[in-house]
């Protein structure tokens, strides 16, 4: 890991400001939708390779309005194309932030688990001679018992 120790605290004010920023984003994009799995499967996919196709189709529609049926709205099509470009940019930015948050969460989680394992080792050792620590050692040990049960292969 490139970051050996992340020793940072996020203030309550900063946590609230970040939550408020997410709320602001959702407030500014009230039209966001959640698609079901079936809707995702049934949708045309407009990935990065499709952007030139979509843009070229818009140009063709704008240059040749006489070939389109009367119920086809080129201005609505243009609005969709413009919104797609903006949302793609937002998605790229959000994905980058989400990736950094996830990587940092993983690094900090790894640090915390390593430190928790050290505490467990100390508690387990001390529980042999310190009254009242045995239940704490057993409680901490539950995490490893669960992990061991999950790793056991099923009996044939």
Average predicted local confidence, pLDDT: 92
Strand content: under 5%
Structural class based on helices, strands and sheet pairing: mainly alpha
**Count of the separate structural domains:** 1
Distance between the termini: 40 Å
The count of DSSP E runs of length 2 or more, i.e. the number of strands, is 0
Query: What's the helix-strand series?
Result: HHHHH
Percent of residues in helices: 55-70%
Number of helices: 5
Q: Compute the CA-based radius of gyration.
A: 27 Å
Largest sheet: none
Shape verdict: elongated
Low-confidence parts: none
Highlighted features:
156 residues; mainly alpha; 5 helices; 0% strand
Structural commentary:
The protein has 156 residues and is mainly α. The chain has one domain (12-151). It has helices at residues 12-28, 37-42, 51-63, 74-126, 134-151. Helix 3 (51-63) packs antiparallel against helix 4 (74-126). It is elongated and about 90 Å long. The chain starts with 11 loop residues before the first helix and ends in a 5-residue tail after the last helix. 0% of the residues are buried. The mean pLDDT is 92.
């Amino acid at each position: 890991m490139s970051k050996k120790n992340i020793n940072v605290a996020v203030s309550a004010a900063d946590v609230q400001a970040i939550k408020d920023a997410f709320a602001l984003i959702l407030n500014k994009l009230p039209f966001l939708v959640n698609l079901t799995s079936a809707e995702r499967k049934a949708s045309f996919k407009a990935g990065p390779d499709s952007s030139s196709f979509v843009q070229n189709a818009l140009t063709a529609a704008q240059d040749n309005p006489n070939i389109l049926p009367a119920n086809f709205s080129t201005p609505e099509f243009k609005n969709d194309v413009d919104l797609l470009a903006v949302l793609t940019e937002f998605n790229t930015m959000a994905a980058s932030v989400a990736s950094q948050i996830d990587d940092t969460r993983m690094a900090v989680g790894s640090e915390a688990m390593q430190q928790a394992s050290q505490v467990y080792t100390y508690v387990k050792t001390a529980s042999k001679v310190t009254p009242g620590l045995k239940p704490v050692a057993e409680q901490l040990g539950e995490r490893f018992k669960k992990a061991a049960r999950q790793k056991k292969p099923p009996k044939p």
